[in-house]
């Protein structure tokens, strides 16, 4: 049983009968608190800045305060031009610090959405998650709980099972690792599939793995997050 079974319900509601080809998953993971701050600023921007002035200001961006940098990056993201996209790429190559890196990622994706939809006869939808994805696949972590102390052979068996079953579901297994007595499986999954399908078939022959597991597309699981999720489950 999936402890976060509402994830697929949310994805299904987004698709709502449309083809997967109508959507593209943004590759970068997104911090949604920063997204909210970004859009709040974008909505306060008044007149658009001319391409020449954007270029002139960008050349001086590293002399700006953090807040002024954020505002300029937001203008670049909103403009949706190839020149702005290249400027944002240059900024990301040189930026230091988590705060401005996250802001630049969002501005870059905002600009990219404009560019790609301008080139298409039929606009496509973009899906953003905390872990990102690739093409029409979303990145997930499945957190599996062992009933007994994990040994290398047990971990290898679970990894082999997931890798053997993955092609049947068009899933890419990216990494399998451990976190204390848990096994973390990172994978790229098609938008229209139930994550429980591969998890259930991959653990069914291994009684040392609990039936309950955690699935998330928001962040790489940590011990703190796992404990918080388990506490919510117990209190629900």
Describe this protein's structure.
This protein has 236 residues and is α+β, with helices and mostly antiparallel strands. It folds into two domains: 6-11 and 137-235, Transposase IS200-like (Alpha-Beta Plaits), CATH 3.30.70; 30-127, no CATH class. It contains nine helices and seven strands; from the N terminus they run αβαααααβββαββαβα. It has helices at 6-15, 32-42, 51-58, 66-79, 82-94, 98-118, 152-165, 195-203, 223-235, and strands at residues 23-25, 125-127, 133-134, 137-146, 172-179, 182-190, 209-216. The strands form two sheets. Strands 3, 4, 5, 6 and 7 form a five-stranded antiparallel beta sheet that branches. Strands 1-2 form a two-stranded parallel sheet. β5 and β6 form a beta hairpin. α3 (51-58) packs antiparallel against α4 (66-79), α4 (66-79) packs antiparallel against α5 (82-94) and α4 (66-79) packs parallel to α6. The longest helix is centred in the middle third of the chain and has 21 residues, at 98-118. It is elongated, with a radius of gyration of 21 Å. The chain starts with 5 loop residues before the first helix and ends with a helix. Residues 1-7 have low confidence and may be disordered.
């Amino acid at each position: 049983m999936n402890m976060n079974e509402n994830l697929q319900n949310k994805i299904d509601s987004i698709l709502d009968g449309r083809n997967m080809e109508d959507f593209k998953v943004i590759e970068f993971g997104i911090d949604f608190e920063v997204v909210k701050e970004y859009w709040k600023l974008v909505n306060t921007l008044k007149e658009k800045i001319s391409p020449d002035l954007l270029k002139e200001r960008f050349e001086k961006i590293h002399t700006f305060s953090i807040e002024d940098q954020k505002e300029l990056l937001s203008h670049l993201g909103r403009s949706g031009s190839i020149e702005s996209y290249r400027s944002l790429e240059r900024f990301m190559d040189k930026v230091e610090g988590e705060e401005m890196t996250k802001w630049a990622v969002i501005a870059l994706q905002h600009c990219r959405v404009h560019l790609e939809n301008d080139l298409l006869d039929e606009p496509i939808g973009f899906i953003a998650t905390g872990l990102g994805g690739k093409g029409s696949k979303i990145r997930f972590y499945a957190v599996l709980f062992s009933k007994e102390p994990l040994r290398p052979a047990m971990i290898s068996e679970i990894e082999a099972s997931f890798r053997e079953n993955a092609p049947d579901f068009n899933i890419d297994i990216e990494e399998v690792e451990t976190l204390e007595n848990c096994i973390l499986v990172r994978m790229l999954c098609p938008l229209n599939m139930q994550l429980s399908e591969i998890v259930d078939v991959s653990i069914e022959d291994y009684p040392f793995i609990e039936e309950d597991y955690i699935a998330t597309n928001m962040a790489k699981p940590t011990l703190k997050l796992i404990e918080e999720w388990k506490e919510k489950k117990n209190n629900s």
